[in-house]
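Hello,

Following up on my earlier ticket. Below are the two sequence lines again, exactly as submitted.
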Amino acid sequence: MGTINQLATDFTTFSKKIHAYNNATAVLYWDLRTKAPKKGMDARSEVISTLSTEAFKLSTSKQMEDYLQRLTEEQTYQQLDAVTQKLVEESKKEFDLNKKIPTERYQEYVLITNQAENLWEEAREKNDFALFRPYLEKIVNMKLEFIDYWGAKEDKYDTLLDQYEPGMTVKQLDQIFTLLRDKTVPLVHAINESNRRPNISFMEKHFAKADQAAFNQLVLKKIGFDFQSGRLDTSTHPFCIHFGSSDVRLTTRYDEQDFRYALWSSIHEAGHGMYEQNVNAAYNGLLLSNGTSMGVHESQSRFWENMVARSLPFWEHFYPDAQQAFPEQFAGVALEDFYRAANLVEPSFIRTESDELTYNLHIMVRYEIEKGLINQTIEVGELPQIWNKKMKEYLGVDVPSDDLGVLQDVHWSSGLMGYFPTYSLGNVYAAQFTHAMKKQLPNFDDLLRAGDFAPLNQWSREHIHQFGKMKSPQELLQDVTGEQVNASYLVDYLEKKYKDLYQL
Amino acid sequence: MGTINQLATDFTTFSKKIHAYNNATAVLYWDLRTKAPKKGMDARSEVISTLSTEAFKLSTSKQMEDYLQRLTEEQTYQQLDAVTQKLVEESKKEFDLNKKIPTERYQEYVLITNQAENLWEEAREKNDFALFRPYLEKIVNMKLEFIDYWGAKEDKYDTLLDQYEPGMTVKQLDQIFTLLRDKTVPLVHAINESNRRPNISFMEKHFAKADQAAFNQLVLKKIGFDFQSGRLDTSTHPFCIHFGSSDVRLTTRYDEQDFRYALWSSIHEAGHGMYEQNVNAAYNGLLLSNGTSMGVHESQSRFWENMVARSLPFWEHFYPDAQQAFPEQFAGVALEDFYRAANLVEPSFIRTESDELTYNLHIMVRYEIEKGLINQTIEVGELPQIWNKKMKEYLGVDVPSDDLGVLQDVHWSSGLMGYFPTYSLGNVYAAQFTHAMKKQLPNFDDLLRAGDFAPLNQWSREHIHQFGKMKSPQELLQDVTGEQVNASYLVDYLEKKYKDLYQL
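Thanks for your patience. The regenerated structure is below:
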């Protein structure tokens, strides 16, 4: 018994060391993106590379292999406490992911994706898919090769999905997207044809950066982001990064010509951030101190960004503050008009600029293409044509050129496949969780009207956040909502909200 | 030959890895002191400890020992290029310093100094030297024991001096402080008795933090601190930290009731910072990318803080800017009066609050006591009495209590002995370097008046900064000034300046 305890302690210490390296790397990265002086960036990248290489070496070392081998022996494993069991499980998953690929093949992959990212950038600039095509073909082929090493699941694409959303399958996603397509596409088309386009001109006046920053701080504080355990800074692209639950950093970018960008992106990132701040502090320093999956993480950011901060009751509370902060810009603008402008639906070519309703359709296009590439029913050469056809069908838009179409995202060039669906899963989970939350907080809308966000936070901490990685997405969904993933809550929410807004 | 080159390359790579860890640790430390949210500090300290322990392990590892053994073999060493030779030399020095002490004794020392720091804090609060005394006795005894391990030089205290100011000896310091005592003490006494105390009331009006920050940025930019390779932030205690020459971070603290604190501390730290920014970029990533000694580093901060930024020509240039930035505070205040207020001499009990002239006398008190402790001619129990006697003799002040006397500095409790003299050496070197600079830039005062600081920076880079640790302090002094350390330049400078200011 004593030796098993000792083994568990040694392993935890070893794991904490790796985590400390990753933690340090994250601080260096945050600093690079928010504070580092211009000329210091190159040297910084080298240091980040040294540290992350070291962490990678440790997490795939002979020492790690030995620990995992001994700790996963049935008899030993059964005697471990739940936290150590989970730590072993997650470490083993990471180890297998990295070690099953022969080193030379992995190095080849790193090389190709590096080249591909550069080529993709050039291709997008020149609006020339042919430039990028051979690299994307190589990447797809390597993904297929790697899937064989990792072990193909029922669907080959499931192997990739599992890396970002553990347990997620094509079977489930097909159901989800079928429902989304059946219910959302007609809604989008109806909105396209409606003449209820809201006035958004007051959102596009001049909003001084400092005033926006102050208003964002006010909102984030009030909804429950803890500034004693976090910060809000600026960077080119908004992100959330954390170094344990007591140090969570958000960034945003202020567009002085548009009130909407910084505010909703800050709230989005704060949703990620509050998840991290609420993870049980007992997991600090362990890789369990982290949201359980990309999809569940995204559900928390989308909950705050959309279900809360794009709702009418939320603005019943905050609109007076907004009017006080920006008296000229919002003078004479009725709450109802502000609310409608905040929920403009406008099919566009670009995913990152799209609204709550059309967003999932952008993801669906990518999902269907990725699934086809990995199951070899679609060839890379056909992509521009397929992309544009699907965009027309789902969003009703004619993509004018590949740089605004199939070349718009960096993801594929850096080898990210199976990642896009987690964005939509975030929305699906968010609606499903919100449904459960409202059952226990039937006065949800009144709380928003009163600016009393503590019960929402308390509920999220208790049912979702505190567990960190201790519960899988499936366990979490089952425990919180009593069922597995179910897109009907999202569809109901979207239909109700947008039919009402556009009087359909 | 090939194998020696390979060995040198491998060693450099190994050394760079250690340096990367220390670099990362420095970023984490900077973040902790300037940006980290309150509740994130504990977890951060653990990560810093993990990384610095790892760096320490590497720099004292068997692998390091093997490298050093092979590279210091006469035949091999001679074939190395100058940079690698220096790298070997510095690494060997660090290795010996850390490895000659038996591990248990070093751990005991860490334990005792940790306890001593806490006890010192309590003793200072309670104004009770007896509380601290047994710990200081233990520390002195351990220093004596360690000196035996390291190897006693001509004077035992030389061994300690060498760790902060390589090559410095009691023999040299005795000469320096004798001259300082003979020439400065009578000057201080004369000023104490003069009735020319300048008016400083306008320095103690209200200066808004943001206005001070803007003015400091303006001054720092103009004197040549490169904000593309650096930053200025706020922290409780001002410091300068760097992660290579292209990322140098300064901090200051704004006292809204005193114009002087933030400005001159910013300029002081910028002096350190410009030294680091000017080190040859070829040494980036190596431990040679660093000022050569504490004393030479301090000479650069003191040069800018005192020789430049407390001079009349400097304020002939900047006073109009200051008046524009703070029109109410400086209304009707003549340049001459501002200059006199900036150079107030006022003997005080506290070193950190002391002026340019009396500062060295505070250091002299500490030097004489440390030397006595290490040579066992002074006992710890006698310290309060000896301290107060020396303060009376040199500065003419009656120390009212030990918390304002012998208990004021943290240094001894954390085992720093041999460090204090480098502060005065900084002033000595600064005057000596300035003398040499003025020979080559005879229009020095005109340059200040014109706000043209580039020639000063250029000279400093060419003669001092660029070499980093490649030249020892002795080599540097000899090459730049044609002689070894000589305090008469400082004494001449102080006598001329303060006799003039106080009309003596």
